[in-house]
Amino acid sequence: MDIERKKMDFMANSRVEERHQYLKSLPVSEAKAVLEALDEFEVTLNVNDRVFQEAYIADYLVDVWEISKNAFWAHIKNACEHENGMVLADHDNHIDPLRNEDIPTEVWRGLLWTLTKAKTKWGGYGECMRDVLASIIYFQTEQALDLPMKCGRGKKRVNLTPRSPEHVERTSQAHIGIQARSSGYGAEPA
Predict the structure, then answer these.
(1) How confident is the model at residue 29, as a pLDDT?
(2) Residue 89 pLDDT
(3) Virtual torsion, Cα 89, 34, 166, 186, nearest 10 deg
(4) Cβ burial 45-67 (10 Å sphere, 16+ → b, else e)
(5) I need a surface site. Which of 26, 50, 71, 142 has the fewest CB within 10 A?
(6) pLDDT score at 134
(7) Which band of pLDDT confidence, cut at 50, 70 and 90, is reported for residue 81?
């Protein structure tokens, strides 16, 4: 099983809906290996290239949860860093693990960032985002097993310092690539 080759084939698809179909064509063990081999930049492309892709991303995330919990958390953490916050779609099945499972501290930090910094306008979509985040925060602060750490009462405190310069640069490059593809710039000639 040549995972690097399969990962290249996976990323060769231009949209997450196509990547998702490719992933579903693989045996679960190979799909898991591909997902866990993605670097942060590749994860960014899968969850933050959102032009007409939100529903496909949500469906993709549901399957990522079933295939690899570690890959799912990496995808959610990255999705929280989008300027518009979490991915929302007609269904919220991809949000269920955040409402029912203890989430890693890094994902918790991302959710807090989304709550305070994302461009979630009041009314319509922003109001829906607020309700989704409220339901996640309720579970994480009332029922999660690692509640003391999330609320700052444990030995390990949540560090809300800004991301490293390397992370900011890499994420900025990913967003520039996404914007260029979305606007038609840099597209391959037909």
Answers:
(1) 96
(2) 82
(3) -70
(4) bbbbbbeebbebbbbbbbbbbeb
(5) 142
(6) 78
(7) confident
